[in-house]
Amino acid sequence: MDTKLTLKMDKYVIDRAKIYAASQKRSLSRMIESYLKTIIEKENLQADNDIMISPFVKSMQTGVKLPADYDYKKEIGAYLAEKHK
Question: How far is residue 72 from each of residues 16, 51, 80, measured CA to CA in Å?
């Protein structure tokens, strides 16, 4: 459901935003709505401590589970030390 909202902004900002919106073939209202949705979704993700992972990245999963305290730098060092003995 759409509801009307009145905003006060600098006239220059409004004029430039209208020009930009027209060049994108979108209404200024839809652009502002999209921006606000982005902020809200980003805040919700941070609050949930979730990270959005693209389907492509998900498809690259190997099924290997590493412990939370895994120190990859230490493991690389140990591997290289053993390799160059």
Answer: 49, 21, 12
